[in-house]
Design a protein that fits this description.
Helix 3 packs across helix 5 and helix 4 packs across helix 7. The longest helix is centred in the last third of the chain and has 16 residues. By secondary structure, the chain is an alpha/beta fold. The chain folds into 2 domains: 172 residues, Flavin prenyltransferase-like (Rossmann fold, 3-Layer(aba) Sandwich); 206 residues, Rossmann fold, CATH 3.40.50. The strands form 5 sheets. The chain has an 8-stranded mixed sheet, with helices on both faces. A 5-stranded parallel sheet has the order 2-1-3-4-5, with helices on both faces. It contains 13 helices and 19 strands. It is 32% helix and 25% strand. The chain is elongated and about 80 Å long. The structure holds cytidine-5'-triphosphate.
Length: 394
């Protein structure tokens, strides 16, 4: 299992429906999945590797003979959380059923113990052939989820069972296989992430060590659970984010503008960003010369959370606290002062947590309850915090 729990291998077989899987890639990405496409060599006749590479931003391989030193058939299998094979041709189903390993995809299927879903697409005669039926039975008996194809127009002028299902149906079935909750459908979740930068001059800034990983985990988890998510990202790489509206900001004042714009229409605000508490007083357009770079005069930034919470109507507000001492007491008073429903307090002594995939800290609730989390992934914390948000939403 990968650290994120969201790595999907999309195996593509050599059927004309391969082009429909391009839409599937996008829809999976919209749900926060990281998709890697592994086509069969023959499927490249229908859709070329460049299409998959452009859609996923990841290299595409079809054989175990490429980059042998990386042992891709084992490492990719190990990192995958789910397999989706779409379209699956009669031949691909037969090869998987007999345990063949004659290309990268079939090697991965054998090497991975992740849950697997197969979406057949073929002519009705091939689908109804006893050989295919037996192969499908074999796959099902081994725990593969094999979808019944749709009935309708097939390649050429024929029609009957064997048609590749609509993307919506595949996504619905995939959601039920992965067991992901869909409890934020119809909700708007606003997440701030990263760390603001306050310009000293055109080249220098005051910043902090926030990587944005926790905020991104929250935004992705909310999107997976069906929310309409807006991420206000301060100085982080947002190029690989799909299915989430992103506003890139630099300073606390930039963030304040977007927050003011978006807050009224959201149901949940998760203020994960590390906002710089002060900014240089002077706005300089020229670089300060070394000889005169001896001190910086600062002025206090507004407390964005405290400010926005005064305009709260029905929103649930979750804040974060970074502390190096008296964690619980400090976080409780921040909760009070900033009008929060939930606060997660991190012990950041010695720079712990920044840039890491795991976190440890305490969740404090309005009713006085404390929930200590020993060591959890940032993805797991995201799910836990969203559970609390949903409870508060009622
Ligand atoms: N926060 C904010 N605006 C600021 C500073 C912080 O909205 N100018 C938010 C953070 O996003 C976080 C929470 O307030 O959700 C607490 O941030 P933290 O840095 O722990 O607390 P501060 O209020 O800055 O207090 P201190 O630095 O004194 O601990």
């Amino acid at each position: 299992m990968s650290a994120t729990g969201r790595e999907v291998i999309l195996g593509v077989g050599a059927g004309i429906a391969a082009y429909k899987s391009a839409d599937l890639v996008r829809r999976l990405q919209d749900r926060g999945y990281h998709v890697r496409v592994v086509p069969t060599p023959a499927s490249l006749n229908f859709v070329g590797a460049s299409t998959w590479e452009a859609l996923t931003g990841r290299p595409v391989r079809t054989q175990v003979w490429e980059d042998v030193h990386e042992g891709a058939h084992i490492s990719l299998a190990h990192d995958s959380d789910f397999f989706l094979i779409a379209p699956a041709t009669a031949d691909l189903i037969a090869r998987i059923a007999t345990g063949r390993a004659d290309d990268l995809l079939t090697n991965l299927v054998l090497a991975s113990d992740a849950p697997k879903m197969v979406i057949p697409a073929m002519h009705s005669h091939m689908w109804n052939d006893p050989a295919t039926k037996a192969n499908v039975e074999t796959l099902r008996s081994r725990g593969f989820v094999v979808l019944e194809p749709d009935t309708g127009r097939l390649a050429g002028n024929d029609s009957g069972p064997g048609r590749f299902p609509e993307t919506n149906r595949i996504i619905e079935e995939f959601d039920s296989m992965t067991g992901h909750k869909r409890d934020l459908v119809g909700r708007r979740v606003l997440v701030t992430a990263g760390g603001t930068r306050e310009a000293i001059d055109p080249v220098r800034y005051i910043g902090n060590r926030s990587s944005g990983k926790q905020g991104l985990a929250l935004a992705r988890a909310a999107a997976m659970r069906g929310a309409d998510v807006h991420l206000i990202a301060a100085n982080m790489d947002t190029s690989a984010i799909h299915g989430i509206t992103v506003s890139n900001v630099e300073s606390a004042l930039d963030m304040r503008e977007v927050l003011k714009d978006q807050f009224a229409s959201c149901d949940v605000l998760i203020m994960c960003a590390a906002v710089a508490d002060a900014r240089p007083t002077q706005k300089l357009n020229e670089k300060i010369k070394k000889a005169s770079f001896t001190s910086i005069e600062l002025e206090t930034n507004p407390d964005l959370l405290a400010e926005i919470s005064t305009t709260k109507t029905n929103q649930v507000i979750i804040g974060f606290a970074a502390e190096t001492s008296d964690h619980i007491e400090s976080a409780r008073s921040k909760m009070q002062a900033k009008g929060l429903d939930v606060i997660y307090v991190n012990d950041v002594s010695g720079g712990a947590i920044f840039g890491k995939d795991v976190t440890h800290g305490t969740i404090l609730l309005r009713n006085g309850e404390d929930i200590a989390l020993k060591e959890v992934s940032k993805d797991a914390l995201a799910e836990i915090l969203l559970d609390h948000a949903i409870r508060q939403l009622g």
